[in-house]
Structures
1.
Amino acid sequence: MSGGCTPEVARDEPGAQVAMLGNVAIVRGALEAGVQYFACYPGTPSSEVGDTFAAISDGLGIKFEYSVNEKIALEMAFGASLSGARSMCSMKHLGLNYAGDPASTIPYVGVEGGMVIVSAGDPSAITSPNEQDQRHFSNFLFYPIFDPATVPDALAMTRFAFGLSEQARLPVIMRPTTRVCHTSSVVELGPLATSRNEIAFNRDPARYTPMPANARRMRKEITQRYQKAAELLADSPFFNRYGSGSRGIVASGVGYAYTRQIVEDLGLEESVSLLQIGAYPIPEGTLNDFLTSVDSVMVVEELTPFLEERVMVSAFKLGRSIPFTGKHSGDFPVEFEYGPDMVEDVVRSYLDMSARAKIDIPQPALPMRPPVLCPGCPHRSSFYLVRKAFGKKTVYTNDIGCYTLGYGPPLECCDTVLSMGSSISEAAAIAQTTGKRTVAFLGDSTFFHSGLPALANLVVNDANVTVVVLNNHVTAMTGFQPSVAAAADDSEENGLSILQAVKGLGVQHVFEVDPRDEEASLAALKQAKAASGMNVVISSAPCVVYDKRKRGGEKRAPLVIDQDLCNQCALCVLVLGCPAIEVNDGRYEIVADLCDGCELCAYVCNQGAIAGGGE
Amino acid sequence: MTTSEKPGWRIIFAGTGGQGVVTAARILTEFFSKRGNQVVSGQLHGMAQRGGSVQASVMIDCGISPVIPAGAADCVVGFEPVETVRALPFMSKNTTVFMNTTPVVPYVLSQQAARGKGNGQYPSQESLEQYILAVTPKLLTFDATELARGTGMVKTLNVVMVGCLFGSGILPVLPEEFLETVMKTVPSKLADSNERAFQCGVEHGRKLCKEERTS
């Protein structure tokens, strides 16, 4: 999806109609608001926000960084705000949890330059280990939150958010979900900002230090600032009303886009009044006016009944005893993404209309096509060799990255995954409790993100753990952002050294291997297995996809299976799971278009039937 | 003209990671937005970079909703046989379906075959066609991968498929207009292969739709 980044985002042509990805529209909104500082850690579905800034920041005089993790990205953006800069950081929903410590206290201190946190949500856990409703940050930690329904919303709300943040002195969260982040649509460009905030850090320790006595004072201020945010939102264009009927519908996020479309397509403008809730806290007057004008309410929102319960409280306070259709009534689920069909069904039922014409589509049993490590991926070599050295009975904890695809047969190198860096802590505790050597896998970017403190803990508290750092020099899963283990010029030598970091923490036994050198790697892994206490294996080889791009798409020559030598033992397929090897009517064949020429299958084949390829 | 009851044009691209499905949707989106149409497009599901199933949608002048409702696609452009069938929920009797007949065999099938578990067989082309014909008669099959290979660069598969869509006459635009606007943006060393691929797709789209009308 990195194709979403286009220079169009910085075009100085107000009024132009341009198609852009939701994540890119967020960047455009920030440019129109005069953003001066940006930091992020990539995470789907937020990554294109950072990728876009990476491509344009230099030319626009914006300070940009890929931070080592989300907590640091948030703190960097806050520090920049204290210096007066309009600042932004971006991350996925889980990233904001990781940054939860500073996130909890920033509203207390308050901001100077406007500060916007993009925290992209992933209903249905499409590319995440969970789904969660970040709107709860609004009343939980006192953040104004924007909940865009469309790509144009994402632009307009981001542009507005910086001013709101400055005036209410609160950080603001922009919460697009996957359907906004990864949807492209036409937006109208506004003027790019012509002025920038003046930069100065004005010393005022009592203002910036939330030690308990100050924190209690700040707590009272927050209530006022949060109220101020609600007043500013009351004058914003993000609480659209559409239709003039007596049946009320309140909708938030992408649920509004579905509902609006259905009302238009079915011509329901005279039956329903539809109110978009584009931001929280909801201005009380907006909701009260709406509730007094309708005789029933339907609420459309994904995930928790967050909005529904706000509306119920408002109705109760108004003494309006009107029927509700939503999650509490059982009409909408509390899990997963909604879609246009589900929303249409509930709208029809709510308005006592005939049911949607059902199309009887057969559901054929098709072979599944789960994602898989690419042909030539060095992680496949590492997994194969580690399993060969450590065997079936060893527990393998895994982590967040492409290498999670070591899950399941045939690689079977993923018994657990939890969160960034957790492979090391989990392995340590499993080794301590079971008494058996445990292997932890994590990548280079994850290592620096939060593997370091877990490794320090392991050094201090020791356990029979072998930590295998899969160093492919890039943050591959989220779109090939540079890892701190590589430098700006992509040469590993100039990046942070994993070896030096590990040694600096006092690890006694460190093995450096190249998984493309199978014999040497295997010898080192066997030593790691036989040792006592903790040790670290750094398995380094470049990501083949990224490497191929750098080489201008040139790929290595594909391998061929000699059918005269192949005895159909199936070993290559059984242990590697490479998508380039197909079984067609009992014949084992390599698909030349897919094969990367890594030669791992040639190493595995004990008939010497696979050859060719090479540099 | 649009084939469904609602105004606008709704296109689904279906294929596997690496076939250029998302890129095809993006090129179409940029083209129509530059023409002044309202376009909403997106990747519906899938991890485009790791060989999984990928579906992308492009909706032209349809409104603000980001997702195509069930049975509402005017056209399904299938880059791969099984993936074409996976898009069945978007089809109705009015949907035109293009299906590339060259499979990309899911690695799970090779796993099944090697382990002797499951049937390990890629479904027959005939059985896949039957699933679609049970919903719509407008199924048009051709070997787009072979056509792409013929241009000298098999990576042009997505351009062949987009050409086919324009050749079909389903969209309110002549292929020549797309060719002129879009091919300007292609790096020059790829321009020849891409133009050949597009023209090739257009010819097949036209031919297939003509055969379908006369049959």
2.
Amino acid sequence: MERSILSRRNFLGLSMGAAAGVALAGCGSSGPSSSTGGGGTAGSASYWFLTGAPGEGIRTNTVNRFNQANPDSKITATTFQNDAYKTKIKTAIGAGQAPTIIWGWGGGTLRTYAQAGQVEDLTSWFGENAAVKDRLFPSSFGAATIDGKIYAMPAETVQPIVLFYNKRAFEKIGAEPPQTWGDVMDLVPKFNAKNIAPFSLGGQSRWTNMMWLEFLFDRLGGSEVFQAVFDGQKDAWSNPASIQALTMVQDLVRANGFIKGFSSITADSNADQALLYTGKAAMMLHGTWTYGGMAADGGDFVSSGSLGYMNFPPIDGGKGDVSDTVGNPGQYYSISSKATPEQKETAKKFFKEAVLADAEVKEWVDAGAVPIVKGTESAFGASKDADFLKFVYNTSANAKTFAQSWDQALSPTAAEKLLDNIAQLFQLKITPQKWAENMNGVIGQ
Amino acid sequence: MTSLAPPAPRGSTATSAQGGRSGSVAWLAAPAFLMFVAFAIIPLIGVLVLSFTQWDGIGDIHAAGFDSWRSVLRDPGLVHALWVTFLIMILSWAFQTPLSLLIGVYLATRSRYREILAVIYFVPLLLSSAALAITYKALLDPNFGLGAGLGIPLLQQDWLGRDNLALGVLVFVVSWQFIPFHSLIYQSAVRQIPKTMFEASEIDGAGRLRQFFSITLPQLKYTVITSSTLMVVGSLTFFDLIFVLTGGGPGDATRALALDMYKRGFQASLMGPASAIAVILVLVGLGLALLLRRLGGRDATESQMEGV
């Protein structure tokens, strides 16, 4: 029966091949890396960043301006979608294929890069170029600083998360925007009765759900609650305030507070914004970066003044400061330590001369975003989005605590566990107690 | 008919003929063998080694003994992912096999309009899984999708937001994509069945149904096994479709083993446990392939054509 054995072995091989293919699948998804990763001519640096209006256009313009001014040391840009980029950049860095300039959110992810020696320490460079540092918001350096050293250049805009609402929807039910959490819960049945979803939510992206917890935790127990988690205190997630916040969010889910089918909506497709500006949903808790998109895609929704915005309302009896906010204190550009000296020089020159130069600052303001450059308030008056810009500026500047988004502040391992459990919580599959128990298991990882 | 045939010459003559030939043609296997070593064996060894280490995908790799295995095997998520994988496998097999068999038999008849139909049926296979997933996601969107657009309440379900519905949609899309492929296999297999068998059965007075169950189906035995093996082992590797369509959600309702592996490895930066899951995936795949092989009888190379 020699034939039978042989063929069985072939079969073994076939199935092994199929399964090993799975193991490779992750690596295979790395996409168009070869032309942009690491290589290129000596002085030309590579730069990866995110797609999506208005940021993509402004980033591209900045690169183009730099390339025109410096024909000898060009920067090649490659763009990625938000959620895809988060995975892609990690893989590329691990494989030694990182771009010269690494776009990021700072915090826990930057920490893993820094600890692995993958990004340049820019502390001394900022020391030599004090002018670059001094014109930026001091608060933006927190998420760029790991163990006292600066590993990234804060850039772009400050992006607090705020409560957007559709004024037309509120007119339909004759109600005012919520002043407290009690108002929020009262509004839910009123909107549902008119077949308007109280809140839009792109729940499949998971970090969208997380923003709710960030605010509820803060308003109930103050910024200390998450700080304890961040500091690695044992059982920090079991704080009574956190259990209460988790219960409240589940109450909101049970009361049909979120749009039907929220758990299959992704934020990357901007469907959550579309729900708000089409009037299918009345409110949306989201980052200020969505403003530009809603202005561009929502017809006259933004220009007619139908978009309302406010900071997250307080909760009766909560300990948190009403001015507290959470979000991105800036975006962060790091330099790969694997880049050639020439590429690093190009990148530093780019940071110094092109990033947040006047032309870029103007473009951000025009797009309705607040750059992290001091003294831009004066430019807001001329903008068609002056009110929104002032609101974002004041929310950011007056916040007693401007916390970084949890998934960015924590390590990737803890963040993934967090997002997983948040998705389960919103599906009502686990209780608040179970949630806290699961999350306590990864504190300090 | 088989009873009339003389016993097939087997044993020593066949083996020696086989042995004599294999010596001279062994080098023909070299390209396949090299590819197999480079893209299957070596990565597999790498994954096995990684499963005994601790690595975040960026920094240094540290040996960690059985830590990854312990954490993976104790995680209730593994049992859940295995169960989801198993469900997708069984459901998509049960859905695809009868349909592709029937379509294959139908298309096997040589007539012009069926040839055209065959080409149309084949179209889904040409589309990439990611494109399919994005399309279905848009169509099934509860607020902007087909149901909402046409105002048909029946279609206006939260298709990807409820556990069972999401799983059902997944099985449907998988089947929609792969039924053409399996139909094609069945079509050509049906065409291989000697016409004489059907002619003889007609003389014996067999109807169409009788022909199907007594000739077509038994003759397709090995095709069914081949097709089933491809479906079953292939379903272990469903990743892109699930990743784009549901992301493993809602919650973890469609978090199959391959997706679980990816999430652990590339999103949570736990390469050790992810490698352990990859090894489990390989073992499950091997086990299933061998099992199907056994179900197909001891020697699948034996001829069905004896006496014809």
